[in-house]
Amino acid sequence: MTFSRLAPLYTAQALATGATTVSTVLSSLIMSGLGHEGLAGLPATLISAAAALSAGFFGAWMLRAGRRTGLSAAFVLGAVGAVVGFVGARAGLLPIFLLGAALVGAAQGGYQQARYAVAESVPDAHRGTALGTLMLMSVAGSFLMTGLARPIEALGSALGSTPELAGWLVGAALLGLAALLIQTWQPLRAPVSASQARLSLRAAFAIPGVKSTALALATAQGLMVTLMSLTPLRAHHMGLEHAGVAALISGHILGMFGFGWLTGPALDRYGLRFGYLGGAALLAAAALTAPLHGTAWLAVSMFVLGLGWNLAFVAGSKALTRFPAAQGVTDGLSYVAAGAGTLLGGAVIARFGFPALALTCAFLPGLLLVSAWRVKGQ
């Protein structure tokens, strides 16, 4: 089996991952710099909320107009949002920065559905491997941005701003390049009629298997985004500078995407239950190690968090490939979970501290056990 014809899609997604690594992931630090540390989780919440609102729209549009059209529009929207976010933060205008974050979030609701485009392009028996390859390619974008941490710092100095702000401009350039690159990809799935393209949430949940899949995706995404978004602030408080925080995020991205070559085929061989159970164990371990003393434990936590998300999320995505019309609304629920997690997480940290948030998160992976129990013959 060859995935060479998917190379433009893989590369575009790698660029999008790189854009996220240098921009929205570090938004809590920008909020701190703007004097709103108590609202450090707000940008991530807006990103998730906007993605939740746009996911259903993009999912239906891609089925009607084609995956390439929808993905290209999402990348362009993300590039515009990143520029708006940079301008707002540079000028010290919090509402404009948050508007940019929301636009980037709306874009993510679209281009994160590239995984369905990948899965649709291969036989069912190889979909885990195809999704794992997408994850593996994505880590290249993150590592590229980590390697450019010093140049991004220099760019920030040249612009009279911080590296975190300069990263938003770099992210805009990467998303613009992804929009151009995706035009060279030839999708296999033909558009469908409008009546087939979108289901209501109630109709989607009426399909056997969708509710348990949605629970798995929402749990994995909510936990991962919450800890990923708020851990950089903890690292900053522990004395890590930009390069150190960037390395921490890259370790997390490595866990998320770097082992797709292993987890994808494992899911094809051992099934969805393996992904849900393994993901639950790793996500719980990540939450329990996050509050331990020392940056080394923080690095371990972030890596394990990414790997646990990988197992659970790829398993859920593979399962959801069977229900194209339910993909958008189900993705929307995942973003709602992520938005609620970051908003509440920021408040918990402000009132009770980071350890309280981490310990609370340690209990939530138990929801994945429900999804594992509901798996039948997969």
Automatic annotation (TrEMBL):
InterPro entries given in the database record? MFS, MFS_trans_sf
Segments passing through the bilayer: 12-34, 40-63, 70-87, 93-111, 131-149, 165-182, 203-223, 243-262, 274-292, 298-320, 332-350, 356-375
What Pfam families would the database entry show? MFS_1
Tell me if Transmembrane helix is a UniProt keyword of this record.
yes
Keywords assigned by UniProt?
A: Membrane, Transmembrane, Transmembrane helix
MF annotations from Gene Ontology: transmembrane transporter activity
Q: What is this protein called?
A: MFS transporter
- Source species taxonomy: Bacteria, Thermotogati, Deinococcota, Deinococci, Deinococcales
